[in-house]
Amino acid sequence: MSASSFAMPLSARYASAPAVARRTSGVLEFMLWAYVALLPTQIEIVVDFRLAPSDFFLFFAVILGGISLRYVAPAWSWWQLSLPVVLAIGALVGVVNRGELSRYVVVNKCAGLMVLFLFYALITTVTRTWLDLRRVLRVLVISVTLQNIASLGAFIAGRAFGFSFPWLNGNPFRLCGMLVDANAYGGLLVLALTINELASSGEAPLFKGWFKHFASLTLLLGIVCTFSRSAWIALATVWIASWMVRRAAALRLALVALAAVLITPFFGSAVLEYARHMASRPSQVSQRLDLIASAMTYISEHPFMGLGTGGFVEREGIVIHNTCLWFLTDFGVLGLFVLLGFLGWFFQRGMLAYRNAPLAEKPIVSALLVAHVAMFALSMGIEAFYTRPWWLVMGLIASSYCIASRPAAPIAPVQGEISNE
Fold it and tell me: According to the model, what pLDDT value does residue 4 have?
């Protein structure tokens, strides 16, 4: 893109995008927005089986607009194709070792991966321009912020007055919103906070004014109230990465954190003691260490092929709470290699997108890159690979790479201007 195009108004640059980028079906666009808006919502039907209302919109997208779903070649690589192969090999190993595949493996792992690939295809089909990408990010931040405010109110009312609002916050002891799992909810809040802060800078901020500051403060309070150490580690990662790429955003995060700390004493000493107890939870730390020790034993016994898909859960009755260890335990060295290659591919494509993106869009790409790193940090404390927010980030990184790599459309000369050609 030429230097003269940077001097154009933002709306004019969007208007000059290739016509092919606007052929996306309106149905698919609406379905993606609805899917993203409902990301903070899950309903646990039975133990270990949760229904995500957002998946209904993915189903409708396939039924109503499936003919418009596109294979965007630059957004795919052999790393994506390797994942189903690894899962299939793991399922075969599981059948050989255990004689059958459990419902957990078939529904949560096999069918779950297919749903995530459909979600990824929907993202890369719809987000064909920078404006499309910005719209999706705005829907994400606004929906997460609004639902977090309601969940925070329900959580505080429950702790202070004993009221129960399980449809807004299913855990009376930790903030989890409607995601059931406080750790996963904390990761979603970290993601929304990262996008809100890092993408709201430069000449075309995603948000500005009072909403940006209000959203950051409430999201940070929500992260604190999840009492999720994994989310706190992800938040620390965001701050470190922000300091390296956008120091102004890191300083804003520090100021928001200071404001949250100053607010906390007004809740009283009982709240502070409760927070200290929930943050420490020594019994849970001991359990996590025992799980890691068990995983290391299984890895030493089956280093190459692993236990097979779902092997650790069926032997221990609980997940490992570490994505890399889960892949290494269930799928062996090959599985870990594919996982790291898959995640690294998105980081590399994000770096290329940042290099080629217009100046106004660089904060958007950097926000997605930092969010990707933060989700990886989160995955050290939970099995985050199947979380939809992480796949949303990866899909948007792939879309940003496709958009940034596309040749810019020539800008027609203004009437009365003499062309150099």
Answer: 39
Tokens describing residue 71:
């294979």
Does pLDDT of 252 surpass 60? yes
Helix pair 78-98, 112-126: axis angle to 10 deg: 170
Question: What residues are paired with 378 via a beta bridge?
Answer: none
Residue 421: inside a domain, yes or no? no
Residue 279 maps to a domain:
yes
Q: Which candidate, 268, 88, 282, places its Cα nearest to that of 160? A: 268
Return d(Cα 183, Cα 174) in angstroms, integer: 10
Number of structural domains (the chain) is 1
Residues 27, 33: Cα–Cα separation, whole Å: 10
- Mean pLDDT across the stretch 384-394? 95
Q: What are phi and psi of 246, to 5 degrees?
A: -145, 90
Give the three-state DSSP class for 358: coil
Give CA–CA dist 356/165, Å, rounded: 47
pLDDT tens-digit map of 79-132 = 999 999 999 999 999 888 887 888 888 888 988 899 999 999 999 999 999 999
Look at residue 12 and tell me if it is in a domain: no
Other CB atoms within a 10 A radius of the CB of residue 407 amount to: 7
Residue 15 lies in a domain: no
Whether the CB-CB separation of 376 and 46 falls below 8 Å is answered with no
Q: What is the pLDDT of residues 277-333, one digit of tens each?
A: 666 665 666 777 888 888 888 888 888 888 999 888 888 888 888 999 999 999 999
SS3 351: helix
User: What is the distance between the alpha carbons of residues 249 and 261, in angstroms, rounded to a whole number?
Assistant: 18
With 60 as the cut, is the pLDDT of residue 22 above it? Answer: no
CA triplet 125, 128, 133: central angle to 5 degrees? 100
Domain that holds residue 260: 22-405
Condensed to tens digits (0 to 9), the pLDDT of residues 133-170 reads 999 999 999 999 999 999 999 888 887 777 777 778 87
> Which of 159-194 are b and which e, b meaning 16 or more Cβ less than 10 Å from the residue's Cβ?
beeeeeeeebbbbeebbbbbbebbbbbbbbbbbbbb
d(CA 154, CA 34): 24
